[in-house]
Specification:
With 319 residues, the protein is mainly α. 70% of the residues lie in helices and 0% in strands. Residues 1-11 have a biased composition (Polar residues).
Length: 319
């Protein structure tokens, strides 16, 4: 027979586990905790990016002008742009500017990155010097190029005349094609440091043992570059080139300071034409329509980065 003392000493049954709330489960999850930390920044970005983008898209469907609210006109602005030769000239200029400048920046940037990745004396000093074109404000560097490309006092024309290669100064910014190549050269000069330093950081992550093993197997330097270095560098190249294309495609300051779209609209990009039609011209709806027309090209650049990252997943053994 069990006494009262023995009954009281028997272990009590455990209380049923209390159900945790969704916030507790979310905060204890690694992905959930990261989501909570990113939520304030995402809310700020959503507010400051979504509202201007939505307003720009809406203005593109109206005939709004400065000082006067517009009415909804549907696709009238886009139909008018479709028949506007200046708009299509700006599309051509933008594509030429973006493709040529991006390819040149990638080639020269990769070449500099490969050089700076070697064991060279004072390489840290040269890495710092290379960043100078990227650090200098765009307007300041554009003013310097405006002097370099001056039709009368250009240092390039003066040097070529002293060497006897030309008889008169070159009209860099007054001729249509000379102006196009001049602004492309200025953009390449500014963009090379970003590409070079980013690719150099990617080269630093590639194990040296892989190149050494390929060299032992008899691979030539070109084979080591194409079969080892370049495939491992492809994801970095995709991201870097995506940002390079975005920066180049939406360039405004350099063009506006150097040429303001001239001569005869020869250097007008879609960004500068949109600004000219919307602000000085007062046609906010038309300018917004030109800006919205840039979105498909920017989405194509983002998809380029996406497929580059898919290659990275394949390299890591994922599906």
């Amino acid at each position: 027979m069990t006494g009262p003392d023995q009954a009281s000493s028997a272990p009590a049954q455990d209380d049923p586990p209390r159900r945790r709330g969704w916030f507790s489960r979310l905060s204890e999850s690694r992905n959930g905790l990261g989501f909570l930390f990113m939520l304030p920044a995402a809310a700020v970005l959503l507010f400051f990016l979504t509202y201007p983008l939505g307003l720009g898209v809406w203005l593109g469907f109206t005939d709004t002008r400065i000082g006067r609210e517009g009415v909804f006109v549907g696709l009238e602005n886009y139909a008018w742009l479709f028949d506007d030769p200046v708009f299509w000239l700006s599309v051509f200029n933008t594509m030429l500017y973006t493709v040529v400048a991006s390819v040149a920046k990638f080639g020269l940037g990769l070449w500099l990155a490969l050089i700076l990745n070697r064991h060279l004396p004072f390489k840290n000093f040269f890495r710092a010097v290379i960043l100078l074109p990227w650090v200098v404000p765009t307007v300041l560097s554009a003013m310097a190029f405006w002097w370099i490309f001056d039709s009368q006092f250009s240092i390039i024309s003066w040097s070529l005349m002293q060497m006897g290669l030309i008889d008169q100064p070159i009209n860099f910014l007054g001729d249509t094609w000379n102006a196009r190549w001049s602004v492309i050269a200025a953009n390449v000069w500014r963009g090379i440091p970003f590409v070079a330093i980013s690719l150099l950081a990617g080269l630093q992550t590639i194990p040296q043992s892989l190149n050494e093993a390929a060299a032992i197997d008899g691979a030539t330097p070109w084979q080591r570059f194409t079969k080892v270095t370049l495939p491992l560098l492809t994801p970095i190249i995709a991201v870097v080139m995506t940002f390079s294309v975005l920066f180049t495609f939406t360039d405004f300051q350099l063009i506006y300071v150097l040429t303001r779209g001239g001569p005869v609209n020869a250097t007008h990009l879609m960004a500068t034409l949109s600004f000219q039609r919307a602000i000085p011209g007062g046609q906010l709806g038309e300018g917004a329509a030109i800006a919205v027309a840039m979105i498909p090209f920017l989405l194509a650049a983002i998809l380029f980065s996406f497929f580059g990252l898919q290659r990275r997943r394949w390299q890591q053994g994922q599906d």
